[in-house]
Design a protein that fits this description.
The complex is a heterodimer of chains A (269) and B (237). Chain A has a two-stranded antiparallel ribbon. Chain A has one domain (2-266). Chain A is built from 13 helices and 2 strands; from the N terminus they run ααββααααααααααα. Chain A is mainly alpha-helical and 269 residues long. Chain B contains 8 helices and 10 strands. In chain B, 46% of the residues are buried. With 237 residues, chain B is α/β, with parallel strands linked by helices. Classes of the chains: A mainly alpha (269), B alpha/beta (237). The interface between A and B is medium-sized, with 24 and 26 residues.
Chain lengths: 269, 237
């Protein structure tokens, strides 16, 4: 495990060295600071002033999804050149030319990007959590648990985009991975909307309530994020379909991970 | 020490190595000679575990070259040596030391020692992007010597080195020879090979044409360069 740990730390250090990472981090910090305004304002509906904690809850949930989605895109950027860059700049030869097994190399690289992206997301969610606490005095139960659940999405995306990068150029693999995520998010969001009680009653229940087969087997990164967000207000989450989103994403993570290890094993340097 | 048995390797339609068998004993200074594309670097890469043969077997110390164990006491300098972007020479060597299994303290010591040996002590803190080709090659040589290896695979080690660097490299090899290190060298600089290596194999189109002690295959008054050209023309010694 020493080799995995070494490669993991090298990967994390090298990502943190990239200027682009710090540019993204700066944008994220500005975004979070900008969001502080949501908790200062007073909102009223039909002349009735809303409870500040209710507003904070709604705003934080929206921000939770924005941060979660944005981190997946950042993960794509970090992961799509992970192995191609190694082949180009001698990083792979440095590691594989030493007594290091290929699986250790792949695992170390994947864990490095996964941890960087996960910690980055957790910090942003933690910032929102603390802002809510500071501004309203209330605590959002399950906000950080929800963030931790989304770590699984990040691991899947790292595996997926890294695997694609062995078959397509970096940009194309990133674009393809992003497309898969976007389709999942649009589909899951649409389904969430159609399942709302208000819309169902307005349309006299004419909207479908069952989950079509393709969405049951499609990578449920978005549904997992919705499931995670249900922890924020301790709500029940019923729109999962026949396969629990956690099981779905775990299955995809394992499949893509095994394929990635197999691909790295076969790679010639 | 090194055993290649009926090794064949192709890249698409190109047969890089064709049915090559080779045995290099411990302590030998062995040169692989040949024109570009003769298959020398492919053999080096297979020995370093970076590439796999299509058929046949490649073994180092009785262990398959695909196994990480075969690289425990091996140093490898690739043909086009590169240092990952953003690293300094010191960081690069420290990483090699750590991956070779050295402790942090030993890594630090050995990095300083090797940097001195290759004449890069003063440049160690500089980023690799600021290095010249010769400097990169010197750091590459130092990285190959990390962990006191008993086998060194050097693919075009003097490429990019100035005459002084080549001379220092020769002294380094002599020092390694006195320590009993086995060296497999791939070089186009035949005069250097003649000075440093005792055994050679001449390759062409993926096949070994001649393989023996250099002193055995050289005719009276013949240089290695002349032998090389003769073998390539005749197809044998």
């Amino acid at each position: 495990m020493r080799n995995v740990f070494l490669i993991f730390t090298y990967t994390a250090k090298d990502r943190l060295r990239q200027k682009s990472f710090w540019v993204i981090a700066a944008i994220a910090v500005v975004f979070v600071l900008f969001m502080r305004g949501c908790y200062d304002a007073e909102f009223s509906v039909n002349g009735k002033e809303l409870n500040s904690l209710t507003i904070a809850w709604h705003a934080s949930k929206i921000i939770f999804h924005i941060v979660g989605g944005a981190i997946l895109l950042i993960t794509i950027l970090l992961g799509m050149r992970l192995f191609p860059r190694d082949r180009e700049d001698g990083g792979a030869v440095m590691i594989v030319g030493r007594p290091v097994a290929r699986w250790q190399y792949a695992l170390g690289r994947v864990l490095g990007v996964w941890m960087i992206a996960s910690i980055f997301m957790f910090c942003l969610h933690l910032a929102i959590f603390l802002i809510v606490w500071n501004k309203t005095g209330g605590v959002l139960p399950g906000y950080l648990t929800a963030s931790v659940i989304c770590f699984l999405n990040i691991l899947f995306v790292v595996n997926f985009v890294a695997l694609l990068s062995f078959s397509f150029p970096g940009f194309a693999s990133g674009l393809f991975a992003a497309l898969v995520l976007v389709i999942g998010f649009v589909s899951a969001s649409f389904f969430q909307v159609t399942q709302s009680k208000a819309l169902q009653s307005a349309l006299s229940g004419s909207l479908p309530t069952d989950v079509s087969w393709w969405r049951a087997i499609y990578p449920k990164t978005a549904t997992l994020q919705y499931y995670a967000s249900s922890f924020i207000g301790n709500e029940s989450f019923t729109q999962m379909g026949s396969i629990h989103p956690i099981l779905n994403v775990i299955a995809y993570t394992i499949i893509t991970g095994l394929l990635l290890f197999w691909r790295v094993q076969r790679q010639e340097y | 020490m090194i055993h290649l048995h009926s090794v064949t390797k192709s890249y698409g339609q190109v047969h890089a190595v064709h049915n090559v068998s080779l045995h290099i004993p411990k302590g030998a200074f062995f040169a692989l000679l040949g024109l570009n594309g003769a298959g020398k670097s492919s053999i080096m890469r297979m020995l370093a575990g970076l590439s796999r043969p299509d058929s046949g077997s490649v073994e180092v110390n009785g262990v398959s070259a695909t196994s990480p164990e075969s690289r425990v006491n091996m140093g490898y300098l690739p043909e086009h040596h590169k240092i990952p972007v953003g690293l300094t020479g010191e960081e690069y060597l420290l990483r090699h030391c750590a991956l070779a299994g050295l402790s942090r303290r030993d890594s630090k010591k050995q990095t300083e020692l090797l940097a001195k040996k290759v004449g890069m002590a003063a440049q160690l803190k500089k980023r690799a992007s600021a290095y010249s080709k010769g400097m990169l090659q010197r750091i590459g040589l130092a990285s190959a010597m990390v962990g006191t290896p008993d086998l060194l695979l050097l693919d075009e080690p003097v490429s990019g080195l100035d005459p002084l660097g080549i001379r220092e490299f020769r002294f380094l090899l002599e020092e390694l020879r006195s320590k009993g290190v086995t060296i497999l060298l791939n070089s186009h600089l035949l005069s250097e090979v003649e000075k440093t290596c005792d055994t050679a194999a001449i390759m062409d189109k993926g096949q070994i044409l001649v393989q023996d002690k250099i002193s055995h295959i050289l005719k009276e008054g013949e240089t290695l360069e002349e032998l090389f050209l003769r073998v390539l023309e005749d197809g044998h010694a």
